[in-house]
Amino acid sequence: MKIDLNTCKAILFGVAVGDALGVPVEFKSRQEISRQPVTDMIGYGTYNKPPGTFSDDSSLTFCLAESIASGFSLEGTARNFVNWRYGNYWTADNEVFDVGMTTQHAIDTLVKGTRPDLAGDFDAHSNGNGSLMRILPLLVYISDKPIAERYQLVKTVSSITHGHVRSAIACFYYLEFALAILNGGEKFSIYNNLQKEVADYLVSIEMSQYERDIFERLLVDRVDLIPEAKIQSSGYVLHTLEASIWCLLNTDNYRDAVLKAVNLGSDTDTTAAVTGGLAALLYGYENIPEDWRTQLARKNDIEDLAERMFSSLK
């Protein structure tokens, strides 16, 4: 498996395009959206932003990518997060217009000098999707490492904002899925293989039965066969992960995958960002509709970041 420039572009544009598609309808219910489903890149809506505006999901993804591009460090990543929140770094239009409560609290904790791996809340009620939504660029850094090291790095990077083990497991599952895509796997084979591989690894590190059971839909069941009405799309990390895998398994191209995610309603930008990252890796950067890529805010800057992230691997 070799990571090329298009892989790096797929990671960044896959997340950001999905995010931008969801921004205008964030917080709208599924029922509300169903009356006028999203079928294309639109603007304004929830935040009154023009088409192609990405949110905190992409900004924090780019902050992590910047750290990787310049020689990954936890401290550098944390500094970038603080710079985003209080310096508008990597924002779409020089304004932070959305930030999760858990992420906000962690960033303020960082500002006070707390070590990055201890900044995120460790409370079970602090399992929003704020670390999952930004974790994908880490794939570039961990792809050649053994599973124990992959897990530890994922857990540590999640912990900058989300310290509970449930968020770490969600991020780990997501990146293991992404890594299997990189290795040429077919999506249903990947899903089936991860049921054993991730489950076995969690047992090997003596993860509690309680936490393992929470991931039953992904590690035991057929999530793709669950009816849409029973797929939730809130800001809870498990809901976002389940919904993104459900969208990926029930579509066969990038466009349909991210639109399905957006039209689930509620946390539309994050569900689509998380779905979009995997879909872009699975179908390729070129499968992201060109008109969506063209409309994306800071498109040239994102391309430059992808090139620098790729160059860091050489």
UniProtKB/TrEMBL annotation:
InterPro entries given in the database record: ADP-ribosylglycohydrolase (IPR050792), Ribosyl_crysJ1 (IPR005502), Ribosyl_crysJ1_sf (IPR036705)
Regions crossing the membrane: none
Keyword Hydrolase tagged: yes
Domain of life: Bacteria
Keyword annotations from UniProtKB, A to Z: Hydrolase
SUPFAM superfamilies the UniProt entry points to: ADP-ribosylglycohydrolase
Family: Belongs to the ADP-ribosylglycohydrolase family.
Protein name (database record): ADP-ribosylglycohydrolase family protein
